[in-house]
Amino acid sequence: MVNIKELRPERSARAAFGAHLRRLREARGWSQEDLAGPMEYSSQHISAVETDRKPPTLRFSRKADVVFGTAGTDDSFERQWREIRHGNLLEGFQEYVVYEGRAVELRLYNIGIIPGLLQTPEYARVLADSAVQRRAITPEQATERVTFLTERQAALARDPAPMVFVTMDESCIRRPVGGPAVMDAQLARLIEFAEQPNTLLQVAPYEIGERRTLNLPVNLLTLSDRSVICYAESQAQGNLDREPTSVLPMLTAYHQLHAEALSQAASVAMISQLRKGTP
Questions:
Q1: Any bridge partners for residue 239, and if so which?
Q2: Burial class of residue 21 in the structure, from the number of CB atoms within 10 Å of its CB (0-12 exposed, 13-18 middle, 19+ buried)
Q3: What is the per-residue pLDDT for 200?
Q4: Is the Cβ–Cβ distance between 203 and 260 less than 8 Å?
Q5: Which residues pair with 220 in a beta bridge?
Q6: pLDDT at position 2
Q7: Separation of first and last alpha carbons in the chain
Q8: Helix 77-86 vs helix 13-27: angle between axes, to the nearest 10 degrees?
Q9: What is the residue extent of each domain of the chain?
């Protein structure tokens, strides 16, 4: 009798992918050898994916979608692969990143955490490792999350470079992450960012109080045709919006916040004081 390994799809996104593959295969009465032919992969490879001993690839996922007829559905293997690839990214964020790589202007606002595009690898790693400790993501997803962020940052080093406007709540620079060495390097990175010719960095100080116009992180992208896309997220959900009737008020709120925030010179001075250990 063949010893069939019990699967635990709740363990990780990769394990869920393998269990999904086995479930659809068995529903059709196919053995791994039966599936090997149309998949153009060996039965050993299919077994390794099902039991989470080998990660699925994009090619494997798309081939499975063709074989099982799941392409473009909620149960598609490619969709599951992208969830593995990007480590539990919020809905809408993957599509947002595509536009981010094309935008001619980026306007970012964050609360509590330095915006991802300005994070050092060490700062990003601390945040990812914290998510692992909370069991929100796996160690593999944490590594992928940091790698993905590095790829996003590299995509902005293009010619011509986009204009990048960043407004941060004061909590972003005052919240300690990873200890003094990590924070010092992160604050130094912000100062370097502000020195670039295509950037503007501003801190929205606590003292503006109720005049803070945005209460959630917001990313606004201006594309080459001057259309604007807005991406906003909460703790559990992201939303990509292209409708002018809802995007333009967000752009107005961003400009109003920009007017209340410190100038770049004053913002850099505040960050420099924090590096020196003065309030």
A1: 232
A2: buried
A3: 97
A4: no
A5: 107, 230
A6: 47
A7: 71
A8: 170
A9: 9-86, 93-118+156-275
The pLDDT of residue 11: 64
Q: Which CATH superfamily is domain 93-118+156-275 in?
A: Endonuclease Chain A (3.30.870.10)
Q: What is the pTM of this model?
A: 0.70
Q: Starting from the edge strand earliest in sequence, which strands make up the sheet with 228-233, in order?
A: 199-204, 163-169, 105-110, 218-222, 228-233, 238-241
Q: What is the pLDDT of residue 236?
A: 60
DSSP secondary structure letter of residue 71? T
Q: What is the mean pLDDT of each run of 10 residues along the chain (279 residues)?
A: 60 80 93 93 92 86 93 84 64 78 95 96 96 85 85 87 96 96 97 96 97 93 95 76 93 96 98 86
Architecture of domain 9-86: Orthogonal Bundle (1.10)
Question: Which residue, 147, 5, 24, is CA-closest to 80?
Answer: 24
Angstrom distance (rounded) from CA 240 to CA 92? 6
When computed from its CA atoms, the radius of gyration of the chain, rounded to whole angstroms, is 22
Helix (H, G, I), strand (E, B) or coil at 49: helix
Instruction: Label residues 150-167 b or e (16+ Cβ within 10 Å = b).
Output: eeebeeeeeeeebebbbb
Helices (H), the chain: 13-27, 32-39, 43-50, 58-68, 77-86, 93-100, 121-133, 139-155, 170-174, 180-194, 244-260, 264-275
